[in-house]
Amino acid sequence: MKIPSHFNVQAPFFLLQVNHSAMKFIGLLKHACFATQTNSKLCVLLLSITALLSLSACSDVEQSSKRAITYCSESNPAFFNPQLDTSSTTADASAHQLYDRLLEFNPINGRIEPGLASSWLVSDDGLTYTFQLRRKVAFHHTKYFKPTRTFNADDVVFSINRWRVASHPYHKVNGGSYPYFESLGLQQTIKDVKRINGYRIEITLYKSDSSFLANLATDFAVILSGEYAAQLLNEGKPSRIDFFPIGTGPFKFSHFKQNHYIRYIRHADYFLPTEGTQHLIFDITPKSSLRMAKLITGECDAVAFPSQSDLGVITERDDLTLLEKPGLNIGFWAFNTSKAPLDDPNVRRALVLAVDKTTLLDAVYLGQATRAKGLVPSASWAYQGDAKELGYNPVKARELLDEAGIPYNFSLDVWAMPVQRAYNPNAMKMAQLIKSYLNEVGVTLNIVSYDWNIFRENLRLGIHDSVLIGWNADNGDPDNFYRPLLTCDAIPSGTNRAMWCNKQYDSLIQSALLIDDFEQRKQIYKKANALLFEQMPLMPIAHAYQYQAIRNNVKGMEINPFGGIRFDNVERVP
Amino acid sequence: MIKLFIRYINLMVLTIFALLVLSFILPFLFPGDLLTNISGITPETAEQRKVLEQAFMLNENIFAQFQMYIENLLSGNWGVSSSSQISLFEEISSAFPATLELVFYALLVATFVGIPVGFLAGLRHHNLADFSVVTFSIVGYSFPVFWLALVFITLFCLQLEWLPISGRIDLLFEIEHVTGFIFIDIFLSGLEESKAAFKDAVRHAILPTLSISIVTTALFVRFTRRSIMDVMEKGYIVAAKSRGFTQWQIFRKHSFKNALVPILPILALQISTLFTNAMIVETIFSWPGIGNWLIQAIYQQDYPAIRAGMLVVALFVLTLTITIEFITRAIDTTKDETARAAV
Predict the structure, then answer these.
(1) 3-state class (DSSP) for residue A252
(2) What integer pLDDT is reported at residue A46 of this predicted model?
(3) What pTM does this model have?
(4) How many angstroms separate the CA of residue B65 from the nearest CA in chain A?
């Protein structure tokens, strides 16, 4: 048996040569007692304590726990509604557990499949989309809401208009910020959402958008209950909609205790035939080493974001399984281009030149990632293999800094995100490496970190100098990288970490959407890549593999490359 | 006696007052918006801000604000946590009992293991058993609590896979919070699987309890041993021996009580040490107590929670310590503190 090397305890094997069986240990103690002929009462006492310990090891829990899956997640969701938050913590806890979308991605080939919409039609000009909705889809029946009707067109109109129409009574509820849709500018794309009849909906656009259907299938385009919203509005408690959620998904919300757990119960009337666990529990465990430990002891059936250094342990142990898939993600170092001197492309290029990306890949990703040249990974059709890239050149870096008039001992903040993500498994370590590289060119780096929710809130305000963070794509479309990460619209919505706004870039990204032909779109993205290389608003670092660690007796678990985790078909087998 | 009482009451009132003043000043020293620091709510509109300012009398002079603060404290209106928006009073009253529970278990272990072992060692002092007890107790006393907890985790959870690492009970069991003491709550819940839940809760409690009780047990052993050794040398014991009483009769009639009386207050004072140790161990075992809760509040920069949590913990330890000290002094006025502290 192997102990993961990063448990900050040196295992105390020198204290006791422990045998794997408890009885052997007790036997040893007994033997020692008689051999030394010490005070017998003391021995009896010690023996009984040990015996008690080992007795309690046998458990009854197994019997009843078969019906539950415990997933050790890494943080608190900000809401139980992914419309309001792009963090994968929120998406994991809500998108596929509580809700459904009009359309769904096939997790294997990324193709768009029917969800709550059973079929759809696109007009020839690409401006009108008609969706036929599924009938007899039940909403959750809970202590706080008893639905009187099943899902229909009103729910779709409500769910889309909530984020689309600024005057909607629910638009301002719980912050009124819908980062995913804002970063894509979807409010400006959609002209109208119209109810044709109870089960037919028509969406018209101002301009054709080749990624529109894909956007409706992402984690964020969930369908809420219009009836529940109306009821809450009557009661004067609209903000409850995102904390006591009602959806059509495979699980019903039961209880959330901040920093501790989230409980879900299976939605018995779910419209798809699924077979899985009755109870789903998210055990919120921020430390990755603790998550790993709980996976070993069986307290977790699956864990979020296993740390890179644990991957070896997981593959070695025969009671654990490691699932892996190339991920649609990118880890990067973004410079706040709204702040001097980082508004100067030459300074940004100098900083990139000063850092050796190869070391970052080796030390932080431990070989579990591929080197990023541009924004999109090779898994996407828009990947450009011959894209230009700045190599490691500290001498050139210092020259550029001198030209820009940056003095020695110039100091700069880097924000290292406090959570692990596949695209950046250890931002703190990466920050320290970058710090040592920048030291060599006379730049002092201060490393800053906060609690994850506060971290992102402060990032949105743009008070950082630079940040180590990344992006998980929600669908395979390259627009899902280029637009939310660097367009002007994405600054207020908080996904443009570089606060970079370039009209030329925006018009390139916009023009790519008007074209359906992949090759032609690819040419436009090539131009965008060249522009990014010249301007360097961020330093692309790596595209990581996605991992999921589970116990062997968990069946039905798959990595979902297009967003949040799903448990609808997961169960524990004996 | 009355003089003593007044002195202690005076001490308590003054210290509590100082604490209240300190906790009142804290939000002024925290960074950020004062109103958010106090109320835990970030006002979204100017109107809401006005209402909140009125509620906390922020536009009045500082004394009126302080008065308002005390009134709010006494009426259980402690504001809300800025990260969860749940009433702090509610959060603390669910976290605090969990810590008390852990302290209670540890105290039980320390009392029912530490004192008998101490007696055994003291009565047969200077033989092998005594030496080993003394050795073990000094080793046990020297362990840093957090280290011990981590060692237990590696050994019993990861190596042997006997016991769970975190929490009070498997999350599968939905135990409603009534008293905050898990075993009582399981009993009250009337759950079908209450037997399994009970066993599971025991398994969860073992390691955290052991980690904090070992240090205290070691201390109890040493106190008891020293005390009984002192007593056994007293004239009345020698007299009893010469009258032909058996060892057991002497122990039962004379030495047991006489050895225990002087050390009980010192042992009681250990509760506050236990309490602080429990807060440390909680974070390691994810025990949902006040220590764990406070650490989370610090991570999330939840200033209202930090303030309320600090105040509650400080008040508890303070009241406990002063009360025990007062009772001790009241019962036995002949000795001062220095005479009792010898280990």
Answers:
(1) strand
(2) 53
(3) 0.76
(4) 29
Strand partners, A446: A413
Nearest chain A CA: its distance from B169 CA (Å): 10
The position carrying tokens 């828009």 is A382
Q: What is the reported pLDDT for A305?
A: 82
A279 phi and psi angles, rounded to 5 deg: -115, 140
Please give the pLDDT value at position A280: 93
* d(C-alpha A282, C-alpha A300), whole Å: 9
Residue ranges of chain A with per-residue pLDDT less than 70: 1-66
Q: Which residues of A fall within a CB distance of 8 Å from B133? A: 42
- Distance CA(A526)–CA(A372), nearest Å, equals 15
What would the two tokens of residue B64 be? Answer: 């009126």
Residue A171 Cα to chain centre, angstroms: 24
From residue B186, give the alpha-carbon distance in Å to each of A570, B90, B163, B175, B209. 29, 20, 20, 6, 19
**What per-residue confidence (pLDDT) applies to B333?**
60
A451: nearest CB among B156, B167, B299 = B299
CB contact at 8 A, A293 and B153: yes
CA distance A315 to chain B (A): 16
Evaluate whether A210 touches A184 at the Cβ level (below 8 Å): no
DSSP codes, A70-111: EEEESS--S-S-GGG---HHHHHHHHHHH--BSEEE-TTT--
A20 vs B156, B160, B301: nearest CB: B160
CB contact under 8 A, A7 and B195: no
3-class state of residue B233 by DSSP? coil
Asked whether the ipTM of the predicted complex exceeds the cut of 0.85, the reply is: no
The token pair at B42 is: 């970030």
Q: Is A293 on the interface with B (CB under 8 A)?
A: yes
Tens of each residue's pLDDT in chain B, 343 residues: 788 888 888 988 999 999 999 998 888 888 877 888 887 777 777 777 888 787 777 777 888 888 888 888 888 888 888 777 788 888 898 899 999 999 999 999 999 999 999 888 888 767 888 888 888 888 888 888 889 999 998 898 888 888 888 888 888 888 888 888 888 888 888 777 788 888 888 999 999 999 999 999 999 998 888 888 888 888 888 888 888 888 888 888 888 888 887 888 788 888 888 888 998 999 889 898 999 999 888 888 888 899 999 999 999 988 888 888 888 777 766 655 444 444 4
Element (H, E) at B340: helix B337-340
Alpha carbons A225 and A170: distance in angstroms, whole number? 12
DSSP line for A328-388:
SEEEEEEE-TTSTTTTSHHHHHHHHHHS-HHHHHHHHSTT-EEE-SSSS-TTSTT--TT--
Residue B270 contacts by C-beta under 8 Å, 6 or more apart in sequence? B110, B216, B219, B220
Q: Identify the helix (H) or strand (E) that includes residue A509.
A: helix A503-513
Map A281-322 to HEC letters.
Answer: EEEECCCHHHHHHHHHHCCCCEECCCCHHHHHHHHHCCCEEE
**Residue in A with minimal Cα distance to B204:** A56
How would DSSP label each residue in B29-69? HSSS-HHHHHHS----SHHHHHHHHHHTTTTS-HHHHHHHH
- DSSP code at position A402: H
Q: List the single residue in B with minimal CA-CA distance to A7.
A: B154
B301: nearest CA partner in chain A: A451
Distance between CA atoms of B128 and B340, rounded to whole angstroms? Answer: 28
Distance CA B182, CA B173 (A): 11
A554 touches A570 (CB < 8 A): yes
Beta strand extents in A424-555 (DSSP E only): 443-448, 466-472, 538-551, 554-555
Structure token digits, residue A439: 């030291």
Q: Smallest Cβ distance to A3: which of B86, B154, B203?
A: B154
- φ, ψ for residue B210 (rounded to 5)? -60, -45
